[in-house]
């Protein structure tokens, strides 16, 4: 999922493991651990775009990496603490700054949801959250600013290893619930695990979890209310994840029933929630000639997947490039759910169909969320990532209404 969500989950793991001994420092180290797997995006600086895309959520998101990293990180961080590095003033300011940035990030994410629902940009709400957050943290962290931070208890290397294990281990598990896919079992198995039960960005998971974690952060480490806040945040997040599984099972059942009612023969099908929510779902099935896809909201009152769209895969456009490394890797990455379109004599448009369309039209190749240009370079394909299509007001209005099960289920 997005980096903010992984920071929140990692901080919760750090608190659960070592909060009684380290206080808010446990949250900070947990947040660092929860961020480490996503550092694989730094490969964009020294790898080809295709290889960097394949590397993301690859080795550094494997269970093997989660098992090995704590063996190194635990002793290293303990050595820093044994050297009294944590008593330096800069560390106190770092902890204060991380907590404040987390609060602001969660507040802005909540405001984005408010803007999606209302159809306007709620700058006044953003300003309210930021100003109240600044005052809140300045008051509660006055002991940090005054240099009166309570001493942390000694922590052994075993506890440090457990802190990093849980903060890193939960990262790929959560990512595996999205559609992008995660190579959990690398190097023994290259399959990308993609359960597709939650969106890559879902504020209804992140915001309540993050706010409850911040509620814990303003209490002393020996205050029993601190643990109740953290346990409550983990419980709320876990219940929401179970709800997303229930939604997915329901959507899959309704989509298969709809396909069978129209006697559509298909070899496989997948479903995934649309961005920022778990109410509007996109489902697609692979047939002999192409794909069948549609949208369904859990608030719909009419026939599920009333409007199914059929469109060709155009995989034959890639016949001239059989064995081409670029096309093979992209086909593997998308699980075969891709469409080709010729947009120039020497250029193909590759659309990964697992992520749906910004316009509500899966049959529109130029509206796909995830597209790549493949240019012929002396018989070999070279990938050029496409920027995401810009949303127009009509698309945003359709998306907002469709989430809440508008009676007009026709796509434009």
Report on this structure:
The protein folds into two domains: 243 residues, no CATH class; 151 residues, no CATH class. The chain is built from twelve helices and eight strands. The C terminus is likely disordered.
Short description:
The protein is of the alpha+beta class and 412 residues long. Helices cover 50% and strands 14% of the residues.
| Helical content (DSSP H or I, runs of 4+) | 40-55%
Give the ordered list of helices and strands. HHHHHHHHHHEEEEHEEEEH
Number of strands: 8
- Physical arrangement of strands within the biggest beta sheet: 1-2-3-4
Descriptors for this entry?
single chain; alpha+beta; four-stranded antiparallel beta sheet; 8 strands; disordered C terminus
Q: How are the elements arranged and paired?
A:
Elements: H1 3-22, H2 24-35, H3 49-55, H4 63-82, H5 89-118, H6 123-140, H7 142-145, H8 157-175, H9 203-217, H10 224-261, E1 268-273, E2 280-286, E3 290-297, E4 309-312, H11 325-334, E5 338-344, E6 347-357, E7 368-377, E8 380-385, H12 393-403
Antiparallel strand pairs: 1-2, 2-3, 3-4, 5-6, 6-7, 7-8
Helix pairs in contact: 1-2, 1-8, 1-9, 1-10, 2-8, 4-8, 5-6, 5-9, 9-10
């Amino acid at each position: 999922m997005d980096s903010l969500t992984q920071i929140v989950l990692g901080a919760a793991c750090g608190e659960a493991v070592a909060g009684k001994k380290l206080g808010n420092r446990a949250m900070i180290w947990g947040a660092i651990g929860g961020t480490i797997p996503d550092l694989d995006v730094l490969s964009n600086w020294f790898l080809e775009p295709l290889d960097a895309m394949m590397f993301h959520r690859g080795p550094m998101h494997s269970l093997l990496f989660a098992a090995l990293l704590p063996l190194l990180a635990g002793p290293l961080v303990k050595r820093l603490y044994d050297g009294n590095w944590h008593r330096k003033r800069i560390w106190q300011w770092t902890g204060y700054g991380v907590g404040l940035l987390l609060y602001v990030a969660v507040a802005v994410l909540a405001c984005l949801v408010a803007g999606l629902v209302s159809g306007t940009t709620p700058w006044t709400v953003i300003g309210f959250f930021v100003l109240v957050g600044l005052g809140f943290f300045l008051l509660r962290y006055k002991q940090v600013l005054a240099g009166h931070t309570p001493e942390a208890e000694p922590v052994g290397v075993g506890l440090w290893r457990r802190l990093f294990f849980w903060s890193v281990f939960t990262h790929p598990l959560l990512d595996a619930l999205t559609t992008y896919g995660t190579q959990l079992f690398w190097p023994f198995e290259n399959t990308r695990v993609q359960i597709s039960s939650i969106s890559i960005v879902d504020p209804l998971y992140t915001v309540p979890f993050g706010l409850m974690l911040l509620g814990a952060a303003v209490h002393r480490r020996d205050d029993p209310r601190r643990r109740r806040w953290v346990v409550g945040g983990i419980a709320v997040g876990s219940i929401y994840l179970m709800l997303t599984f229930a939604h997915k099972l329901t959507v899959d059942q309704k989509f298969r029933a709809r396909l069978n009612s129209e006697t559509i023969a298909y070899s496989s099908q997948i479903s995934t929630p649309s961005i920022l929510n778990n109410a509007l779902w996109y489902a697609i099935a692979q047939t002999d000639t192409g794909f069948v896809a549609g949208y369904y909201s859990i608030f719909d009152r009419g026939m599920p997947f009333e409007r199914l769209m059929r469109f060709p895969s155009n995989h034959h456009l890639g016949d001239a490039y059989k064995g081409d490394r670029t096309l093979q890797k992209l086909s593997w990455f998308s699980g075969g759910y891709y469409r080709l379109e010729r947009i120039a004599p020497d250029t193909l448009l590759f659309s990964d169909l697992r992520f749906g369309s910004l316009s509500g039209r899966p049959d529109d190749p130029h509206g796909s969320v995830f597209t790549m240009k493949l240019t012929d370079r002396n018989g070999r394909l070279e990938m050029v990532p496409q920027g995401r299509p810009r949303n127009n007001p009509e698309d945003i209005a359709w998306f907002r209404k469709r989430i809440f099960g508008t009676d007009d289920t026709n796509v434009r």
